Amino acid sequence: QVQLAESGGGLVQPGGSLRLSCTVSGSFFSINVMGWYRQVPGDQRELVATITTSGTTNYADSAKGRFTISRGYVKSTVYLQMNSLKPEDTAVYYCGYYSITASSPTYWGPGTQVTVAS
Questions:
Q1: What is the DSSP letter of 10?
Q2: What is the pLDDT of residue 72?
Q3: Tens of pLDDT along 21-50?
C-alpha cells in the first residue's frame, strides 16, 4: 500500500520562503512522477510542479522563477522550495505520485496548509 506524508507547511509573511517535503512509502512505480498541487476552498486542485524519476521538471506559470521542485538522494522524497511567497499562494498543498504512464496522480498525501499573510 502506497502512503504519502507531507511536511513543511505553515504561516509565512509575504516575500518569505517555505520548503515542503513529501515522502512515499510502500510499493513504488519504477519510473514515476512526483508532484505538488494546491487547492483553495471552492476551486479545483491545480498543478504547481512535477518531477520525474530522471529529473525532468514541469512548473505552472505561477511557480516559475519562484518555486523549485527537487528529488532527494533517496528518490522517494520530493521537495518544493518556495521563495518570494505571495498571499495568493495560500492554499492546501498536496503531494501526488503516479506512474510515468499515467497522466495524473494515483496517490495523494493528506495535504499541508500554507498561509502567506502579514
A1: E
A2: 86
A3: 999 999 888 899 999 999 999 999 999 999
> Can you say whether residue 62 is alpha, beta or left, with left for phi > 0 and alpha for psi between -120 and 50 degrees?
alpha
User: From residue 17, how far is each of 48, 80, 92, 97 by CA, in Å?
Assistant: 16, 10, 16, 24
- Amino acid at position 105, single letter: P
For residues 67 and 82, what is the distance between their CA atoms, to the nearest angstrom?
Answer: 4
DSSP SS3 for 87: helix
| Complete DSSP assignment for 88-101 | GG-EEEEEEEEETT
DSSP-derived pairing of the beta strands 57-59 and 18-25: unpaired
Is 106 in contact with 97 (CB distance < 8 Å)? yes
